[in-house]
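Project outcomes to date are best conveyed with an example. Our students and postdoctoral researchers have been running inverse folding experiments weekly, and each run begins with a structure described purely in tokens. The record below, which covers 490 residues, was selected by the lab manager from last quarter's runs and is presented without edits.
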């Protein structure tokens, strides 16, 4: 793309009030799925350029920095919906999970306020900006991976957790990829998650035996252990069923997993990086698209889940939080004909999908409560163990989860009953959670760039019939419009 094209794109961008890109990946349905990253959010995010040197966080003795406010009348946690915060507060305060939402709404939890915005996750950023601009009370608030760095890289919006007396020793057992998402461009930890949203590949065990001859998750994993093998397996299934059964659920699911296998950041030295993995994904997607190895359905649609119910789709890329949500719908629910016929394996690459991080407003006047709340949710093993079982949740602590898995904990009978031979589905996801590596790979506009790339592959390369290079020109144009501060070679 030449300088003139980039300049024109920039002019077009500045003329727009907002240009939205639908996120293809790191969102939950009803927990922020279909999140949209606006141009305003992208341009407000801190630069992707690596810092000249990493700022080492000082060791701390567990005390709160004198600069942090304490003694406020009410501790306020802000979130876009009520899916997590009320339960986290219930665990922290030892209250009833079943009544906590109403108790908070009725003001019955002394000194604690849950400001639930009742919007989708992708709309939360705009609402948060309003709250900050209005000077509203915010002590702790939640951010999604898609747009977390907009706040984490802003020292006026997020507080280093070291200021609360929290450091490496408090988060020694969190999964490493979650720590990377929570760090700012200088390597300072500002956000921490209570959940690990590692993914896996859930598949119909009966169909896998019929078409691939595999009888165990280990045998299935061997059949799809990399993307070339995945395509080979999909082609075999398609040939045997005359294109009637797809191995994979959606292009979005493929991309969600594939994107986590990148070994370079999307932006280096403030320039977009289109590496070999981009071409590899395009070729993989086309091979599956052409043979019917992936459905042409779109995520979050009725057709997406209906394909699992009908048996026209035998596999879904799914994350920890999704097994009790959309995936259970895709098997027809506990009374459905496909219920109890599934297994799960790691899939072609370790990946995660979604997750939420806690961050602290530097203007908090409740530093002690913020610290205690974060410790309860993300550090205290006993608290996290109880939360994992009661919520239930795959918590962000490998020691806790390893113990629960070793004890064959049944986190949810309804979800567990969907898996053949009593397979512990969390045990498979734990393998991926430990292998995801995002060290040095997180940049501020990743969600926008990933969405623009997947849209270009589908709309231009697969549906539009353009060659890869032409599709990438469209991709570059879209990125230039959304992230005008990037530099481009002439």
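After processing, the design step wrote out the following sequence:
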């Amino acid at each position: 793309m030449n300088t003139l094209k980039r300049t024109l794109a920039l002019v077009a961008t500045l003329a727009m009030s907002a240009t939205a890109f639908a996120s293809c990946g790191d969102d939950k349905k009803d927990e922020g799925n279909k999140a949209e990253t606006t141009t305003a959010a992208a341009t407000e995010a801190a630069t992707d350029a690596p810092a000249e040197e990493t700022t080492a966080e000082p060791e701390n003795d567990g005390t709160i920095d004198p600069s942090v406010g304490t003694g406020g009348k009410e501790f306020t946690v802000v979130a876009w919906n009520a899916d997590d915060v009320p339960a986290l507060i219930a665990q922290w305060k030892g209250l009833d999970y079943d009544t906590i939402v109403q108790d908070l709404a009725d003001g019955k939890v002394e000194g604690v306020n849950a400001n639930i915005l009742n919007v989708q996750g992708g709309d939360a950023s705009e609402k948060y900006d309003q709250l900050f601009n209005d000077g509203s009370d915010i002590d702790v608030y939640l951010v999604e991976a898609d747009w977390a760095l907009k706040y984490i890289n802003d020292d006026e919006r997020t507080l280093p957790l070291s200021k609360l007396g929290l450091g490496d020793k408090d988060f020694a057992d969190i999964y490493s990829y979650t720590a990377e998402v929570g760090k700012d461009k200088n390597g300072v930890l500002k956000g921490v998650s209570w959940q690990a949203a590692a993914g896996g590949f859930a598949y119909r065990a009966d169909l896998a035996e019929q078409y691939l001859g595999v009888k165990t998750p280990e045998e299935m994993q061997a059949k799809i252990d990399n993307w070339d093998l995945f395509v080979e397996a999909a082609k075999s299934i398609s040939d045997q069923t005359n294109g009637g059964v797809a191995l994979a659920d959606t292009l979005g699911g493929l991309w969600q997993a594939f994107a986590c296998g990148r070994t370079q950041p999307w932006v280096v030295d403030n320039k977009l990086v289109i590496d070999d993995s981009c071409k590899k994904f395009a070729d993989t997607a086309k091979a599956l698209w052409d043979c019917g190895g992936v459905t042409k359905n779109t995520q979050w649609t009725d057709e997406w889940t209906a394909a699992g119910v009908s048996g026209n789709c035998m596999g879904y890329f799914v994350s920890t939080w999704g097994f009790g949500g959309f995936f259970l719908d895709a098997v027809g629910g506990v009374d459905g004909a496909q219920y109890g016929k599934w297994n799960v394996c790691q899939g072609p690459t370790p990946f995660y999908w979604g997750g939420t991080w806690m961050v602290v407003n530097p203007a908090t006047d409740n530093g002690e409560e913020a610290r205690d709340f974060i410790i309860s949710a993300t550090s205290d093993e006993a608290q996290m163990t109880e939360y994992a079982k009661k919520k239930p949740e795959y918590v962000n602590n490998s020691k806790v989860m390893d113990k629960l898995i070793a004890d064959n904990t049944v986190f949810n009978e309804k979800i567990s009953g969907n898996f053949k031979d009593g397979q512990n589905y969390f045990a498979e996801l734990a393998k991926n959670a430990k292998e995801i590596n995002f060290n040095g790979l997180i940049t501020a506009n990743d969600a926008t760039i990933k969405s623009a790339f997947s849209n270009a592959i589908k709309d231009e390369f697969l549906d539009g019939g353009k060659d890869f290079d032409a599709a990438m020109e469209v991709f570059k144009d879209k990125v230039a419009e959304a992230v005008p501060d990037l530099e481009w070679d002439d």
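Residues 27 and 33 are 4 Å apart (CA to CA). Residues 446-462 form the longest helix (17 residues). The training component of this project remains on track.
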